[in-house]
Specification:
Blueprint (H helix, E strand, L loop, with lengths): L1 H18 L3 H15 L10 H19 L2 H15 L4 H16 L9 H10 L5 H15 L6 H9 L6 H23 L10 H6 L3 H7 L14 H20 L24 H20 L3 H6 L1 H26 L1 H14 L4 H12 L2 H14 L4 H6 L14 H9 L17 H22 L1
Subcellular location: Cell inner membrane
Pfam families: DcuA_DcuB
Keywords: Cell inner membrane, Cell membrane, Membrane, Transmembrane, Transmembrane helix, Transport
Length: about 450
């Protein structure tokens, strides 16, 4: 019976992935309905905390975008990237990583990818190199961000066993090690543009050759009046969350009692609630001080992306939680001995599930509780956190497709066999390197 239920889960994920957008969420609900009404399975806990985190962070990021803050950040990033064009293969991924760490979402990279592609092309560096590793670096930034939904899910699952700062101390340096390993493998990947037959054929078109070296930099467009203010408010909010995570004694404490979405059983405030409170308060301050319209916030691309993420995570995680809880005994029996002998093998399960779910937060919420159930030590679970970045394997994630479209030379591609694409090698090396480094840092800092 478990294999039939698992087949239904896989079918829902695969069909949902093909539908894109909210497809994962609605197909997850279909599978959940089958579990409830056909198999009479007890429904698991819906991922309310993760959904609220996404809503809060994305709403605040969208407010900053509507106020012009994203344009200001992109302008800063452009100056950094253009300052060392010969080092774009290194600078590109570092910039996308730290921007994602700051914003809590990889969607910020859509504005950076065309700049990376342009700088590389004008320097005649194969754009595939910086673009592929920059996309992977942005994804890794989610598991190193203090305000991402994935990090909040980790804190919630391991409540009382870890603090936010412990995750950051392990995952930020571990992800950087993984990114540098990825940079090393793509540094000379593929043919040089001057020797690439596809590029040379395109250069025969004089219009293509002329447009290729035309800069798209636009310094003349003025920033909105509240652009810098919105970035400052957002930055202070992120800093405040990190400080509270480092010094939880700063928060008020209440009498022990029944736990809810805001308070733990011991009376301490949950970190997820702190992130939601601080982020939405920051959004309110941006609206007041930058005079940004709430209508503009609702129309922002980040707000739309966040709404899709909430629906997707709602359906697919609720479905996965129901399957896991109903079959926990069988799963424990199958994996328990192996994971006890070699805890790192659990990272393989995280990676495979993230390939299908296209979400670090959904993977964390769906599978990390099983890691706790199997008795894996909290420091080992944190070390394996970067393994939730397998969303590059099947080239359907928006950031991958955007990178391919922004590369006018055609060097960034999806291969004939679907998985032999530009992101596979740097992705596998970076994620593997991050997990390996994670174990090292987890045992050094714990």
């Amino acid at each position: 019976m478990i294999w039939l239920q698992f087949a239904i889960l896989l079918a829902a994920i695969l069909i949902g992935a093909r539908l894109k957008g909210i497809g994962l969420g609605v197909m997850g609900m279909v599978a959940l309905a089958i579990y409830l009404f056909v198999f009479r399975m007890r429904p698991g806990e819906p991922p309310i905390d993760v959904m609220l985190i996404i809503l809060a962070v994305v709403s605040t990021a969208a407010t900053m975008q509507a106020a012009g803050g994203m344009d200001y950040l992109v302008r800063i990033a452009e100056k950094i990237l253009r300052s060392k064009p010969s080092m774009i293969t290194l600078m590109g991924p570092l910039v996308t990583f730290f921007f994602t760490v700051f914003a809590g979402t990889a969607h910020i990279t859509y504005s950076l990818l065309p700049i990376i592609a342009e700088v590389a092309t004008q320097k005649r560096i194969r754009p595939e190199r910086p673009l592929s590793i920059s996309v992977v670096a942005a994804h890794l930034g989610i598991t190193a961000s203090p305000i991402s939904a994935a990090t909040a899910a980790m804190i919630t699952i391991l409540a009382g066993q870890i603090e936010l700062v412990q995750i950051l101390k392990v995952c930020i340096p571990a992800c950087l090690v993984g990114i540098l390993a990825g940079v090393a493998v793509v540094w000379k990947k593929g043919k040089e543009l001057e020797k690439d037959p596809v590029f040379l054929e395109k250069m025969k078109d004089p219009d293509f050759a002329r447009e290729l070296d035309a800069s798209s930099a636009d310094e003349s467009k003025p920033l909105k009046p509240g652009a810098k203010t919105s970035v400052i408010i957002f930055g202070v909010a992120v800093l405040l969350i990190v400080l509270v995570g480092a010094f939880p004694a700063m928060l008020p404490r209440f009498e022990p009692g029944a736990a809810n979405l805001s308070v733990n059983a011991n009376g301490s405030i949950k970190m997820a609630a702190v992130i939601e409170l601080v982020m939405l308060s920051a959004a309110a301050l941006m609206l007041l001080f930058t005079k940004t319209s709430t209508t503009d916030v609702a129309k922002a691309s980040l707000f739309t992306a966040g709404a899709q993420a909430v629906v997707s995570i709602f359906g697919v995680v609720w479905m996965s939680a129901t399957f896991m809880e109903a079959n926990s005994a069988a799963i424990q029996a199958a994996l328990g001995e192996m994971v006890t002998a070699a805890p790192w093998t659990f990272s393989i399960a995280l990676f495979v599930l993230s390939m299908l779910l296209f979400s670090q937060a959904a993977t964390t919420k769906a599978l990390m509780p099983l890691g706790v159930l199997l008795g894996i030590a909290p420091n080992n679970l944190v070390a394996m956190f970067p393994a939730t970045n397998g969303d590059f394997v099947l080239p359907g994630y928006p950031t991958l497709l955007a990178a391919i479209n922004f590369d006018r030379t055609g060097s960034t591609y999806i291969g004939k066999y679907l998985v032999n694409h530009s992101f596979m090698i740097p992705g596998l090396v970076s994620v593997s390197g991050a997990v390996a480094a994670g174990f090292l840092f987890a045992h050094l800092f714990w």
